[in-house]
């Protein structure tokens, strides 16, 4: 089914003039860049210090990242999960504010938190902890 759609799009693109095809190519490259896991990881790393500043404000420790479409189980997904630890006496409000600030800073829609290892469902815990990348 996806191949049929791609074929139809190619046929429509072939009808465009040269300048329109160039513009279409630029737009497609931008879509790929935005969804490329390597560029998303690079964006996270570029914002690393800002993320740590936000984390310090809310008592967030030991930030690890899972997702980005880099692990086989997340291929094709734009989802990013931040695995974090909290300072003692920090709770849900700290987590929620950290999450909101992260979403705003990064501009990613699918950003989630797992507040600690025990908050991850058991069937996924081992795999997530083994493949999560320290920020």
Describe the protein in words.
It is a single chain. The protein is α+β, with helices and mostly antiparallel strands. Helices cover 57% and strands 16% of the residues. The chain contains six helices and four strands, in the order H-H-H-H-E-E-H-E-H-E. The chain has a four-stranded mixed β-sheet with strand order 3-2-1-4, with helices on both faces. Helix 5 links the parallel strand 2 and strand 3. Helix 4 runs antiparallel to helix 5.
At a glance:
By secondary structure, the chain is α+β, with helices and mostly antiparallel strands.
**Beta-strand content estimate:** 15-25%
Strand order of the largest sheet: 3-2-1-4
Order of helices and strands: HHHHEEHEHE
What integer is the average pLDDT? Answer: 79
Low-pLDDT parts are 71-76
Overall 3D geometry? elongated
User: Care to count the β-strands?
Assistant: 4
Number of helices: 6
Q: Briefly note the structural class of the backbone.
A: alpha+beta
Gyration radius (Cα, Å) is 19 Å
Major sheet summary line: 4 strands, mixed
What is the helix fraction of residues, given as a range?
55-70%
User: What is the multimeric organization of the chains shown?
Assistant: single chain
What is the distance, rounded to the nearest whole angstrom, between the alpha carbons of the first and last residues? 38 Å
